[in-house]
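#lab-general

N.A. 3:47 PM
ok so I finally got the sequence cleaned up, no stray characters, all 198 residues accounted for. can someone with queue access submit it? mine expired

B.Y. 3:52 PM
send it over

N.A. 3:53 PM
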Amino acid sequence: MSRPLLYLAVALLALLAACGRSTPSNYYLLESGQPPLEAQSLPGKSLRVAQVNVPEYLDRNGIVSRVQGESRIIVAEFHLWAEPLSQGVRRVTRETLTPPLLAAGVTVLPEGDDTRGDYTLLLDVQRLDANFDAKAVLEARWTLTGAGDAILGRGIYAAEEMVQGKTYTQLVDAESRLVRRMAEHLSEKLPPLIKSRL
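B.Y. 4:20 PM
back already:
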């Protein structure tokens, strides 16, 4: 094989190898920002945060963002949730609710605890998405049930949070803040409803 053909073959192989590489995927988690909790004993009454419902457009691995001023959404190909979004919302809600409810005499059951719980919190997320350099939006309905699935209270939570830039880390940070704010709102709403049944 002549030298020019050899160089051409090597160049083609290098080009094919470069084409075979893909952009690495990045994985993200919603964060509660709660420090580890320590308790010598736990109250007898318990609350279970049920599996969270999310709309189909959010029930996917890729992080969803909106195009500002349009109804169009973008599903990221290489920026993915490290866990299903419904599980992330449930986890952050549990972690944020645990300290204030513990102080109110109620244990928030951890992940994997199959205990029914004296109370159940149902969350139905209607919207959780964001525009880069604009705002993140959370809209959710909540229901608190007690013994025999009796409804003790329900409500709607809606809030916005600014996205401070154009990165997915900044977008996820804004969405994390929204979920924490919802859980903090619930930490004020739930204890009076629970105490009315103690």
